[in-house]
Structures are given as C-alpha cells and as structure tokens.
Amino acid sequence: MKCSKCGKKAVIYQKYSGLYLCKEHFLDDVERKVRAEMRRFRMIERNDCIAVALSGGKDSSTLLFLLKKILGHREDLEFVAISINEGIKGYREKMLENARKFASSLNVPHFVFSFKEEFGFSTDDFANAGFEQAPCSFCGVLRRKLLERKARELGATKIAIAHNLDDEAQTVLLNYLKGDFERLLRLNSRREEFIPRIKPLRSVPEKEVALFAILKNIPFSVSECPYLRKSLRFSVKKLLNEIERQHAGIKYSLVRGYERLVELLPKPAFELQRCEICGEPSASKICKACEMLLRLQKLTKNNKSKREFNKGSFRRFDA
Ligand code: SF4
Ligand code: ZN
Question: Ligand 1: which residue has its CA nearest to atom 2?
Fold first, then answer.
C-alpha cells in the first residue's frame, strides 16, 4: 500500500485515522502527537529538571529519545534517567542493562534504585508471601513512591512517565471497573506536594511506539514480567484490544471522554496529610506504600527480612 500523503511505500495503516503512512510520515506523525500533548498540558516549563522513568522497555526508551530530540537543544533544561529495580528475578536485570547503555548513549545521567535496598522487600517477596492481591498492586504503589522520593532527592521538577495511549485507556477503564472515582478524578490533577508527572506519549498507541522504536533503531528489551498476566490491567488490556479491533478509535474516545468528564466535574477536595510512618504526603494517616509494607512485615516472620526492613524507609521515621 502507498502512503496517503506522498505515495511512497507505507509502513503502517492507521485504522482510526484511515491513513496509510510511509516511514518518514509515520515518524513525523508520532513526533507531532508528542509535541501537541506537551503543549496542550504545558508539560515543560523553563529551567525544568526532567526525571525520566527509564525501564529499558520500548516505551520509556522511546520517551527518552523523543524528549532529547525535541528538547535537547534547550540549555535551561536538565535530564536525568531513573530506573527502579523491583527485584523480579530473571526479568529486570537485562532491562536495566539496556537502560544503562541507552541513557549513556544519549549522555543522560542514569540512576538505579532498588526496592530491596529502600524498603527491605522485593516484588518477588510480595509474590511469595501468600497475598490474594496480584504482585502488581504492591509493585506499582512502591515504584511510584520510590520514583517520587528519588526524583525529589535529585532535584527534579518533573517526572516523565512513558504511558502510551493504551496505558491511559487501560487506567481510565480500570478505575471505572474498580469504582475508584476519586482516583479517576485525580489522574491528571496536580498537587504541589508532589512532583508533577508528565506523559508525553499519552496519545500514541502502543503499537506505534513499538514501530517508532524499531524504525529508529532504539534498543529495547521485549521480555515480559512474569506477574503481568495475573493483573486486572492485563485483562483490561486484552478487552480493549479486542474492542479496538472491531471499532477503531475506541481507545482515543475512552481517554478523550474521560478528559471531558473531568472538566465537567468539580475538582476533588481531598486533604493531604503526612504519613505517620514515612512522613511523605498521603491521603490517609498511613500511606498506601507503608500500609502494604506493614502487611508484608506481619506476614514475614523471617528475622532476616525484618532486619532488612528496618534498614529501609522505616528508619527514616525512627531517626
Ligand atoms: Fe511490577 Fe506488575 Fe509491572 Fe511486573 S507487571 S513490573 S509486577 S507492576
Ligand atoms: Zn508512608
């Protein structure tokens, strides 16, 4: 098939837009979408220090590449890359190595922090502790917390997350399905207690991020986390892909519809307090991360784990 814009050989057919695009016009289209979202949400401000959450997968490597391409000439901006090692045996190590090499090829300082060192527990520990919840619920909450803490320590003013259109649509539907409307309303809101999180890839479909990475020779790891398929998010992902196949554009309409809903509703008035354990901003007396760590500590009778636990975030409170 031929590119709808120039007649050259097409590399993709975008069913939702009805366009065939050649390599050049496809790469332009992705970059245009990223620039448009950055402008729409005023993601970048003067003198920002942008901490990019870099996992070594296709999305975050593409994000770092595009941020450097679009903003790399700006002398007022700084970039750092942060990788989190959740402690998932046989999965994360290779990705971290990718992340390290890629950040270094773009001259971006790279930092790695691990759950085990910071909290005393890994995602594997949680998965083996006998909880009913899927490991993702623990892993996601702690990753967010560690990223925020380390970005703050490094002096970052923005945290860039590589959520693509599929991730955004999944998050919206997930929160609907869980009936978590407070969270839904908070998704795009900013609180000064937290470093603003920006998502420049939020309107690029996941498949297009992958194609972009391949066409630009961005190295990325394709391994899948062994816990992914246990999560509700994975079921939602499958469901959305199935609907999208029959009704192209449904992911866009879900995310755009959510944005309109948020505009119509009053801003959520939730009071933030300090977590009694770690001292960080929290919606309740004990933040979700500390609550999970406490549950895990109770379940883990092993003395070694307890010793390690005391070395982590709890020591900050005791000190
Ligand atoms: Fe963590 Fe779940 Fe992601 Fe695996 S799939 S890294 S357990 S959040
Ligand atoms: Zn806490």
Answer: 136
